[in-house]
């Protein structure tokens, strides 16, 4: 009886190892790991961001007050291992902008195309280094993005940091009167995940996003454009071919209730679900 239990346990462990061998699970929602998919492997990820904002109850009646309405960004990413060190990614992006009265329609926002690579095998260097390049072709914006991905393992702890910058161009094909405005965005991340069990890793993560030099004609526009800092707990559950990651972040700039027109809520939630195909 004991031998049967041992054999069954060994078989189950083997299946789990086989199931996760091709996956590159995101143990932190905003920070990419160093590992890339093996050649020919495919993975799909569903990513949802929730940013709670405020909108007027009635756009024609300022005395009616405001209510909460989340901004939602839903992305589906398909990843493919071009080689053991080069990974392709393709995103479809949908977005729901809060509207007065609490309505919000989910609309197609654009496509993203990216290439990710690592410079050595994990653990071969004191710090694992990877590179990430992305082109965003959104409905009203063209963006070029680059990341330097850093990783270090210390026993059960995994340290990750993505040094992330973007150059965004508003409506690049319109006239200068209506578009072609360029913005340089910084979006660094850093975090730690701890392996409690092979399938469970809690952690903490920091990320920031915005312009180093705020821009805009009004105080609200300048506040929206400047760098905002977020930090909070994360959790990661790996179930073999399927994994789930969740992060809850507080806006460290301010936790006040946002006003209509503000681009950042008091907190941010990102949930990710990945499946190794």
What tags apply to this protein structure?
277 residues, mainly beta, Porin, 2 helices, 53% strand, disordered N terminus
Q: How many domains would you count in the coordinates?
A: 1
- Morphology call: globular
Cα(first) to Cα(last) distance is 35 Å
- The CATH H-level superfamily is monomeric porin ompg
Descriptive notes:
This protein has helices spanning 2-20, 219-225, and strands at 42-56, 66-81, 86-96, 106-118, 128-138, 141-154, 157-170, 182-186, 189-194, 200-209, 228-238, 242-251, 267-276. With 277 residues, the chain is mainly beta. It has one domain: monomeric porin ompg (Porin), CATH 2.40.160.40. Strands 1-2-3-4-5-6-7-9-10-11-12-13 form a twelve-stranded antiparallel barrel. The model is unreliable at 1-22 (pLDDT under 50).
Element layout with pairings:
Layout: H1 2-20, E1 42-56, E2 66-81, E3 86-96, E4 106-118, E5 128-138, E6 141-154, E7 157-170, E8 182-186, E9 189-194, E10 200-209, H2 219-225, E11 228-238, E12 242-251, E13 267-276
Antiparallel strand pairs: 1-2, 1-13, 2-3, 3-4, 4-5, 5-6, 6-7, 7-8, 7-9, 9-10, 10-11, 11-12, 12-13
Summarize the entry for a quick read.
This protein is mainly β and 277 residues long. The protein has helices at 2-20, 219-225; strands at 42-56, 66-81, 86-96, 106-118, 128-138, 141-154, 157-170, 182-186, 189-194, 200-209, 228-238, 242-251, 267-276.
